[in-house]
């Protein structure tokens, strides 16, 4: 089994480690070469570090300021078309990204200060300061819960619930997931290694162009395939499938989605629509029904 095993604490010290499987030489096991790189040596989609695209944060759904940002952009002008909805989502994402950066970049500091204040009063607890003690305890718990939700969303370990002080576990899982999903280079069809951003983008584009290009089969080929497939959709079922979509269908689909799974191109995961449905639901419903019932184009959001 040609694999390497490490402790999560070690990975925290060397987050940019690479493991190379070398060629076989007189053995049925591949030798492993472990390469330790500094943080500025490892390329992640190119040579220069770039901030990742916007992702809506689960940890901010209960923040009043977050709700106000969404209300301001969503109520600025009524719209039911896809272009208008896409523009509102972009405006929300732009403001929320700046707010998230300011809000969560100081979260660790806020937790440390809140803990220091709580520990100070906890050592000198008396009947005169117990109300302040309770207030600080609630504030500290709220900050820790917020921090936990922040790292839980990045870890993708959604089976483990918040509230059990699992921030360290979520942080380690998020760090491991980021390292695993990092692309340092790609091999093209000529088996030439490429680690430049433009070159990797071209390799990906060529791969999917080839994958999804039709081989132009004849109608005879289609008929042969279809003849061997048993019919599953009855006329009655087909009649149900052809019915016009209604608003309740859109809402049901939205609320059946996993709240914090990977978002779309706009960075908004399902929890954004679920939590703020009273604000965004009417426009989202109208835009979706316009597409599925009337065939309106999706160019602005796809």
How would you describe this structure in keywords?
single chain, 302 residues, mainly alpha, two-stranded antiparallel ribbon, 12 helices, 4 strands, 4% strand
Largest sheet: 2 strands, antiparallel
User: Outline, from the CA principal axes?
Assistant: flat
- Coarse structural class: mainly alpha
Order of helices and strands: HEEHHHHHEEHHHHHH
Q: Which range does the strand content fall in?
A: under 5%
Biggest β-sheet: strands ordered side by side in the sheet? 1-2
Percent of residues in helices: 40-55%
Distance between the termini: 43 Å
What is the averaged pLDDT score? 77
Radius of gyration: 26 Å
Q: Give the total of beta strands.
A: 4
Q: Can you count the helices?
A: 12
Q: Could you list the spans in which at least 5 consecutive residues all have pLDDT below 50?
A: 39-49
